[in-house]
Each structure stands twice: as C-alpha cells, then as structure tokens.
Fold this sequence. Notes:
The protein is mainly α. It contains ten helices and no strands.
Amino acid sequence: xxxxxxxxxxxxxxxxxxxxxxxxxxxxxxxxxxxxxxxxxxxxxxxxxxxxxxxxxxxxxxxxxxxxxxxxxxxxxxxxxxxxxxxxxxxxxxxxxxxxxxxxxxxxxxxxxxxxxxxxxxxxxxxxxxxxxxxxxxxxxxxxxxxxxxxxxxxxxxxxxxxxxxxxxxxxxxxxxxxxxxxxxxxxxxxxxxxxxxxxxxxxxxxxxxxxxxxxxxxxxxxxx
Length: 225
C-alpha cells in the first residue's frame, strides 16, 4: 500500500528549499567548470554518475548506515571520527562538516532529540559533524527508516550538483531537469542493492578532489567547495 505520510516526509527532506545550507556547496562542480572540464549536460551527467558511484555509494552511504545503526550519540561520534580520518582532502572534510552541522542545527531547531543531544559532542570536538553522519542523525529524528534515509541522501546530492551547475550557467533549467531524470535510474539501481553493514567506506574521485582542493586558490568563487 502506498504510504503517503512517508512519501511526504521524503519530499520535505529532499526538497532543495529545505534550509540546511546545501546551496553553499558545489562538491567540485565550480572547480571543474572553471578548469573547462565541465562544459554542458553530457559532462554534468558523467560528473553526477562519478559522484554517485565512486564517492556517495562507497563512502557516504556506508558511513550513513553505520551512524544510523549506532544507538547512542557516543557511538555515532565514533563513526564521525572515522569519516574525518578517512577523508584525505582538507576542503572536502571542511565542506562535509559545515554542511552536516547546518543540517543538524535545523534538525535540532525542529525538535530533534538525537540531533540536540549529538550537538553537545560537536561543541566539544571541531572534527565532528560530517554530512553523512548528520543525515543519519537528522533522518532518525524524522522517523525515516534506513532505506528512506539513503534515498534522501542520494537524491539531495543529485539535486545539489545540478543546482550548482545551473547557478554557474553550465546547464539551463530544462537541461537541469534532463540531468536529474538521467541520474534517477542510476540512483535507484544503486539503492536496489543493500549496502553491507560491514562495508569499508572508500572513495576514488581524484579529479573532483583536485578541483575542490584548488577552490581556495581561485580569486573569485561562488561556493565553499
């Protein structure tokens, strides 16, 4: 039976208007566009696919799952520290923490008990607050199950990348919708296979990492990453 309540929750948390600060991060879109490596819809589609397959599905998704299954805030912090040490790029670490802390802040203001409790840990350790862990905490507070939390996480990534490309003029609004439509089947395919609970988080996106690492060397920029 169709669960309207669950669908509405997914729409709310997956909406680009949800005030979690995601508009400030391009996750490499801006850098690659500035370097002439992201010039239009085909490049954007390839970029989204690379992000989904070689970072989100192998890194963010396993981390989200671990944090989602962690019962106490202290156990969540263990996963968070693992996220910190397993992300070699300093700009990616900083962006992930800033995005995660923004999401936790909104969740706490909306009355999320676990989000409120976990923010105590964040105040004591500047290394904590990575986005996949924050998503796990916030979506648990929202009473989403793990598959739904993974879906929202993947969807917000796609939406964020396409939104950044649109704001930078890489694609137009109609082309942006085509890119989103093209990415949906791949995300669905990835989600159709459960992420093993013992999966070792890893990523391999060298061009994206280089583009993000060069962000602070650029004279002008629109995004944090």
